What we know:
The protein is mainly beta and 179 residues long. 11% of the residues lie in helices and 34% in strands. It is built from 3 helices and 9 strands. The chain has helices at residues 10-16, 60-63, 110-117; strands at 21-26, 29-41, 69-74, 78-86, 89-100, 129-130, 133-136, 146-149, 166-169. Strands 1, 2, 3, 4, 5, 6, 7, 8 and 9 form a 9-stranded antiparallel beta sheet that branches. The radius of gyration is 15 Å and the shape is globular. The relative contact order is 0.24. It binds a DNA duplex (12 and 12 nucleotides) through strand 3, strand 4 and helix 3.
Amino acid sequence: MPRAFSERDPVEVARALLGQLLVHQHRGVLRVGRIVETEAYVGPQDLACHASKGRTARTEVMFGPAHHAYVFLVYGMHHCVNVVTGHGTAVLLRALEPLEGLAGRRTDGPGRLTAALGITLAHNATPLDEPPLFLAEGDLVRPRDIRRGPRIGVDYAGAWARKPLRFWLRDNRYVSATP
DNA sequence: GCGGTGATAGAT
DNA sequence: TCTATCACCGCC
């Protein structure tokens, strides 16, 4: 995918990423999943978005060029990967449909997704249009097959927690469980 | 439902 | 330096 893909409003990108492929190439091993669930984090004003802390060492990548990876560690053990859409915005990848190199691995949920593909903090700030970690063109998704609802795990964000910024493919078995 | 785990940000 | 907090997950 070209970098221009991610140089758009994060909500548009969150929808457009559904059906696209996330690929990780590591020491000759190829792992590929189809993106089936995303969440938009829409900028410094969004209290659920890490960029609401302003520009810090951690959030700086979100203010850099679009189409780069923002990877962070939560709860001391789980990595989460985002597609940076610039200006302090990003799209969290929450679930994949396994396509290649993922036999027997669960890819529903942001922590399981990164564990299955082998994504770590080493991938933070890397461009997503070249190996080892990149986005590739998948299939076209019909707008009617996209569902939306509140984001997961951000209850602390008040009214921002209730905004429908989570997107997923209707009836897809790999979408993570809804609380 | 509960707690592990370590990076981060802000306080001290 | 210390401490609270956390875009989760597996097991109870």
